[in-house]
């Protein structure tokens, strides 16, 4: 099977479901759940469950969280490549309201110990992949090393620049073929790298021409996919590299589902996009995005992050673009 290499984080998620997100100084009563998460592991799980041979490069503590990661990776057939750390396995505290909206605080733990040297030791997997996917819950140097190795070998790269307050650099953006921010991350990247300040809450309402211009300013040589939640996604290509699409920019609508929890929706989108690009070579880019949007919508029908990733039938391949 075509291979996707995911470089990123594993967290043990601690989730409180309540009627409304707590305000500063407020105590609310809710329902507690725990399970696997971390943007890297969520995306790796989505890749595996949508049909890609998946390698996951991460760092784990020598504790129950690390043992959980190993067990779950084996269950989904993920080739786990963990660096050892004396720090505890990463954790996340998540509040989810009745509408499925969430707020999250992350304790990096072992995730912060993933080194560029360890990533370089996984070069055999990276140069044998079709897609390398990374996020920013791991040190920038380790992510940059993975993306550099991939680009040097002619492997396509996807950078999900999340979370919004994570460190990033122009050098890192330059080695991303495809950039996949949400509205908040998009606004943060523009402010950090171009000096342009916009209101993240207004991004979905921007005219397409303005949004395309901002995307081209941020990543002149690559494709930007801005995920917009209930408003779908906006795609912006370099004018002479539209990846099979007829237009250099367009919108893809969201799919209507009975949303329970949006916690892992962005990760579902990225994992499904990586699988589709790796496994189906004759699709235009818009079809890959539609597949990812559909899969992300389905993931919100269940509570949790990695555990909520839908499992497609074995041998069935990616779900249809519609």
Automatic annotation (TrEMBL):
<comment type="similarity">
    <text>Belongs to the carbohydrate kinase pfkB family.</text>
</comment>
<keyword id="KW-0808">Transferase</keyword>
<keyword id="KW-0460">Magnesium</keyword>
<dbReference type="InterPro" id="IPR002173">
    <property type="entry name" value="Carboh/pur_kinase_PfkB_CS"/>
</dbReference>
<dbReference type="Pfam" id="PF00294">
    <property type="entry name" value="PfkB"/>
</dbReference>
<dbReference type="InterPro" id="IPR029056">
    <property type="entry name" value="Ribokinase-like"/>
</dbReference>
<feature type="binding site">
    <location>
        <begin position="11"/>
        <end position="13"/>
    </location>
    <ligand>
        <name>substrate</name>
    </ligand>
</feature>
<keyword id="KW-0418">Kinase</keyword>
<feature type="binding site">
    <location>
        <position position="137"/>
    </location>
    <ligand>
        <name>substrate</name>
    </ligand>
</feature>
<comment type="function">
    <text>Catalyzes the phosphorylation of ribose at O-5 in a reaction requiring ATP and magnesium. The resulting D-ribose-5-phosphate can then be used either for sythesis of nucleotides, histidine, and tryptophan, or as a component of the pentose phosphate pathway.</text>
</comment>
<feature type="binding site">
    <location>
        <position position="261"/>
    </location>
    <ligand>
        <name>K(+)</name>
    </ligand>
</feature>
<dbReference type="InterPro" id="IPR011877">
    <property type="entry name" value="Ribokinase"/>
</dbReference>
<feature type="binding site">
    <location>
        <position position="182"/>
    </location>
    <ligand>
        <name>ATP</name>
    </ligand>
</feature>
<comment type="pathway">
    <text>Carbohydrate metabolism; D-ribose degradation; D-ribose 5-phosphate from beta-D-ribopyranose: step 2/2.</text>
</comment>
<keyword id="KW-0547">Nucleotide-binding</keyword>
<dbReference type="InterPro" id="IPR002139">
    <property type="entry name" value="Ribo/fructo_kinase"/>
</dbReference>
<dbReference type="GO" id="GO:0046872">
    <property type="term" value="F:metal ion binding"/>
</dbReference>
<feature type="binding site">
    <location>
        <position position="267"/>
    </location>
    <ligand>
        <name>substrate</name>
    </ligand>
</feature>
<dbReference type="InterPro" id="IPR011611">
    <property type="entry name" value="PfkB_dom"/>
</dbReference>
<feature type="binding site">
    <location>
        <position position="304"/>
    </location>
    <ligand>
        <name>K(+)</name>
    </ligand>
</feature>
<keyword id="KW-0963">Cytoplasm</keyword>
<keyword id="KW-0067">ATP-binding</keyword>
<keyword id="KW-0479">Metal-binding</keyword>
<comment type="subunit">
    <text>Homodimer.</text>
</comment>
<comment type="similarity">
    <text>Belongs to the carbohydrate kinase PfkB family. Ribokinase subfamily.</text>
</comment>
<dbReference type="GO" id="GO:0005524">
    <property type="term" value="F:ATP binding"/>
</dbReference>
<feature type="binding site">
    <location>
        <begin position="38"/>
        <end position="42"/>
    </location>
    <ligand>
        <name>substrate</name>
    </ligand>
</feature>
<feature type="binding site">
    <location>
        <begin position="227"/>
        <end position="232"/>
    </location>
    <ligand>
        <name>ATP</name>
    </ligand>
</feature>
<feature type="active site" description="Proton acceptor">
    <location>
        <position position="267"/>
    </location>
</feature>
<dbReference type="GO" id="GO:0005829">
    <property type="term" value="C:cytosol"/>
</dbReference>
<protein>
    <recommendedName>
        <fullName>Ribokinase</fullName>
        <ecNumber>2.7.1.15</ecNumber>
    </recommendedName>
</protein>
<feature type="binding site">
    <location>
        <position position="299"/>
    </location>
    <ligand>
        <name>K(+)</name>
    </ligand>
</feature>
<feature type="binding site">
    <location>
        <position position="263"/>
    </location>
    <ligand>
        <name>K(+)</name>
    </ligand>
</feature>
<keyword id="KW-0119">Carbohydrate metabolism</keyword>
<dbReference type="GO" id="GO:0019303">
    <property type="term" value="P:D-ribose catabolic process"/>
</dbReference>
<feature type="domain" description="Carbohydrate kinase PfkB">
    <location>
        <begin position="1"/>
        <end position="310"/>
    </location>
</feature>
<dbReference type="GO" id="GO:0004747">
    <property type="term" value="F:ribokinase activity"/>
</dbReference>
<feature type="binding site">
    <location>
        <begin position="266"/>
        <end position="267"/>
    </location>
    <ligand>
        <name>ATP</name>
    </ligand>
</feature>
<feature type="binding site">
    <location>
        <position position="302"/>
    </location>
    <ligand>
        <name>K(+)</name>
    </ligand>
</feature>
<keyword id="KW-0630">Potassium</keyword>
């Amino acid at each position: 099977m075509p291979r996707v290499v995911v470089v990123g984080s594993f967290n043990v998620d601690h989730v409180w479901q309540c009627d409304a997100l707590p305000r500063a100084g407020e105590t609310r009563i809710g329902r507690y759940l725990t399970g696997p998460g971390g943007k890297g592991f969520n995306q790796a799980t989505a890749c595996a469950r949508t049909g890609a041979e998946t390698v996951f490069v991460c760092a784990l503590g020598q504790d129950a969280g690390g043992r959980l990661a190993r067990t779950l990776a084996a269950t989904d057939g993920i080739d786990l490549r963990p660096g050892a750390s004396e720090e505890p396995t990463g954790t996340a505290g998540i509040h989810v309201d009745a509408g499925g909206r969430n707020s999250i605080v992350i304790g990096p733990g072992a995730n912060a110990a993933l080194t560029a040297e360890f990533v370089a030791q996984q070069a055999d997997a990276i140069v044998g992949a079709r897609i390398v996917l990374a996020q920013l819950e791991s040190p920038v140097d380790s992510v940059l090393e993975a993306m550099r190795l991939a680009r040097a070998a002619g492997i396509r790269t996807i950078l999900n620049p999340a979370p919004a307050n994570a460190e990033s650099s122009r050098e890192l953006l330059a080695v991303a073929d495809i950039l996949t921010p949400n509205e908040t991350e998009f606004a943060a990247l523009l402010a950090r790298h171009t000096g342009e300040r916009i209101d993240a809450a207004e991004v979905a309402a921007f005219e397409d021409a303005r949004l395309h211009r901002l995307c081209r300013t941020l990543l002149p040589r690559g494709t930007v996919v801005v995920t917009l939640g209930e408003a779908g996604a906006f795609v912006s290509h370099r004018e002479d590299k539209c990846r099979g699409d007829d237009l250099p920019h367009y919108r893809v609508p969201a799919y209507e589902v009975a949303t329970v929890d949006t916690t892992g929706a962005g990760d579902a989108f990225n994992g499904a996009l990586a699988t589709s690009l790796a496994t189906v070579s004759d699709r235009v880019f818009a079809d890959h995005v539609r597949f990812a949007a559909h899969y992300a919508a389905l993931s919100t029908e269940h509570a949790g992050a990695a555990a909520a990733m839908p499992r497609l039938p074995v041998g069935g391949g990616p779900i249809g673009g519609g």
